[in-house]
Design brief:
Blueprint: E1 3-6, E2 13-19, E3 23-30, E4 36-43, E5 47-54, E6 62-68, E7 76-80, H1 85-96
Antiparallel strand pairs: 1-2, 2-3, 3-4, 5-6, 6-7
Length: 98
């Protein structure tokens, strides 16, 4: 199983994710040119829990937080501005992190 999604396309932040059968791969490009790149590879068995916080029904801004086992603070915390991809990510994480 492999599925990819695009996060918000703003001038300062791009998030690309690939969902495989064993892990979540995140590529976070920052800046106008996208020269600064962070790569995250998170095995599903290491995800202890996740949360999606939305601002409300009419406001599409949302935040995704992912906790890794043994950590008190979230390892990943990403903002989604006016992007409904957060709900697809939530469904995928709920199905593989059970």
């Amino acid at each position: 199983m492999s599925k990819s999604y695009w996060g918000p396309k703003s001038v300062t932040f791009w998030l690309v994710g690939v969902v495989t059968d064993k892990r979540l791969l995140l590529v976070d490009k920052q800046g106008i040119t996208g020269k600064k790149v962070d790569f995250h590879s998170i095995p599903y068995k290491s995800i202890s829990h996740f949360s999606v916080e939305t601002a409300g029904h009419f406001d599409l801004d949302a935040e995704l937080k992912i906790w890794i086992s043994g950590a008190q603070l979230p390892a990943i915390s990403k903002q989604f501005k006016k992007d409904k991809a957060i709900y697809d990510i939530q469904k995928l994480l709920a199905s593989v992190c059970s």
